[in-house]
Input
Amino acid sequence: MNECLTQIILLNCVNSGQSLIHSVPIIAQASLVAILHLLIGTEVGSALVEEIAIKFEELYLQQKSMECSNLLILLTHFYNFQVVHCVLIYDLIKILLNRFKELDLELLLLLLKNCGFQLRSDDPSALKEIVLIVQKQVTDHGIDISETKKSKEEGDEDQKNFNFRARFLIQMIFDLKNNKVKNNHGEDSPVVRLKKIMKGYLSKRGNPSESPLRVPWKDLLDSKEKGKWWITGSAWAGGGALTSPTPSKSSSTSFDATLMAMARSQRMNTDVRRNIFCILMSSDDYLDAFEKIQKLNLQNKQEREIISVLLHCCAQEKSYNPYYFHLATKFCTYNKNYRFTIQFLLWDKFKMLSTLSLRGIGNLASLTANLIANHSLTLGALKIVEFHKLDSHSVLFIRLLFTTLQGKSISFVDGDSVGNSISRVHDNSGGSSGSIEGKNGLDGNVHGGG
Output
């Protein structure tokens, strides 16, 4: 799918034979990629961005202005729709400024016009470095930014055009730095309208979240030789030769002695479970934990241990910690098979609620409710519960779960309320009815920061 989508969009940009600067279809294509980036994962957006970078440099060497402009427009719309981070755009600006040829000036003007306002909003401090590069280029090229119209007539035509564009670019960058540039995308612009449509569409799917690609331009160009570190599970050679990824030995992973002792105290009786536990406890946030767990290269049934340890740790917290919810959601978004794994392991937990502490029951109820609320699970996850045979622990779990759901004011299918959805689960079952980051700590918060 990635290859087909990439080829279609690139062909539209490169072989269209016309400028796409004001093209609405290219904005729609960027919004489609943004939706897929959120629903499927970074693999979709990163594949296309990588090909854009490689094709852009290829066309730049051929001095094909229109094709380069079309690719740049597509990239700026990826930024506007948060497929890529401002780090990539700033990186490209620096590269074009350091070249400082006529085509570079043309591309820079186009880039700043389309996303300059957003760049300043996202990282105004990065503009300082841009200004320093501009000042150096002004000095090196002997450009007088205060030059009058009369003096511009001197010299050959190409030089006059270059100087004019350079002065215009310099003025735009200084206006951007001094916050004198207006947003080019007003309320009625296609970008804003599509953002609103995207927001409504994604809200029905639990508002999935995915970080924009924070990749330097050079790494995109070198991806075929050095690998793609921004894609989880891919090899990365850094400055050396690319080597194939090999499954890491679980026992070779080293952690702090305190963490290992904590893992043993929580009956993490295999190397896989201990490694997962230590990663959960030592990660800075859920994204860090997700990436580290992926690097364990667990196979088949070993992946089940991820959810098993996650549910165990969640139940052991002193109070509900949303860290586990965000991590579980990330795994569900990454691979839909994890949804079934979570559901099956929760069923096991439902059967042993009487063995859990009240704190553990409350934490699991909150986690389950949040996973249902963002559609990672459905209410069908409760079909195993025999509502006509509930003991006191099960009653507490169900009461806490639906109290949490009611507090979220959500609907499930065709606008059904929580009450109607409960009735449907009841009929089917045949019965009646902190911060997200931190490190270490167990019992008094398994993952202390929450």
